[in-house]
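Chain A, query sequence.
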Amino acid sequence: FEEKFGAGWEDRWVQSTHKGADAGKFVLSAGKFYGDAELDQGIQTSQDAKFYALSAEFKPFSNVDKPLVIQFTVKHEQNIDCGGGYVKLFDCKLDAADMNGDSPYNVMFGPDICGPGTKKVHVIFEHKGKNHLIKKDIRCKDDVFTHLYTLILNTDGSFEVLIDNEKAESGTLTDDWDFLPPKKIKDPEAKKPADWVDNAKMDDPEDSKPEDWEKPEHIADPDATKPEDWDDEMDGEWEPPMIDNPEYKGEWKPRQIDNP
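Chain A, predicted structure.
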């Protein structure tokens, strides 16, 4: 399958109307800047803050004994804060006019930007009814220029992701996706022993509180004196103000040792 968005492209592609009035329309354009006004034309989102989706049908194929390659260019010339520029390979049962984010797909690949925290290249494969995301983080380009994204899936189960024909990531289907059950799992029959202790430290049984530890937290100010004009009958019994006790050590706790 190849598409250069030349003459008649609108007859080959179906734009989704699932979002109704919130659905944007793709138009043919070379953008704000380009190398060749004709050769650099591609589909462009024409309205801000809209949802965009379109699809084209291709003949059934098999990648048995040959690599599968998905390749396309993306230009975010608005320097977007949030938006996806990815492609999906759908099953032939897709309702093109109703295509939406919940439509089942087989492969999803391409850049996705959502604020400063998400700037990644998605590589997602459907397997047994579940979408499996790649476990590696592949950063996408976030400037305003055109970039070429390529996914190569080889016959030996290895893959490569290229950005502008330079390797951004590689690996294998078995290592970088959770298609297969883990090699080891926790024993469901295992139980914590009754005498198991979780604490790494314990009170030292040999430690004891010093005899002179107990001291009050506050004491009467030894330097305070009863004012000369104090009248016990009028002012009540005079008591010196309380101050922090410099000998107070707080609550005693035994020192901690390694728990054998």
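The two ends are 67 Å apart (CA to CA). The first strand starts at residue 13 and ends at 15.
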